[in-house]
Input
Amino acid sequence: MRTTFESSVVTPRLTCKTDLSTDAEQPLTREIIAAAMEVHRSLGPGLLESAYQACLCYELELRKIPFRQQVEIPIAYKGVKLDCGYRLDLIVDDKIVLELKSVQDVLPVHEAQLLTYLHLTGLRIGLLINFNVAVLKNGIRRRVL
Output
């Protein structure tokens, strides 16, 4: 499935990962986090990212939350959209970007990746979820542009 988004340049505004009060998508964000917690509660840490993604997609289906996975993101360059191989893990309800990880430590490059996907899609809310933690709430980072 090929999906094309218009690109826009926006200066990012980082927010605290627990500040949901200004978010119109607050209920959806909470549902996504609840679904991720259910997956983590069942599987625990230590699996590959692909396993968590498959299980999270199944959990979102069970909760009737619409999503698209492995969405191709083209780069707009001089008025031309080029497929450069960027694929984001999930877009939930065409509102929230999810970038999933199963890594020892979330690095600045992982957060930059999420911010880049937000810029390229024109969406404003993203969740970076690292499943390789003992307690999942410690592995969730929320970013808003």
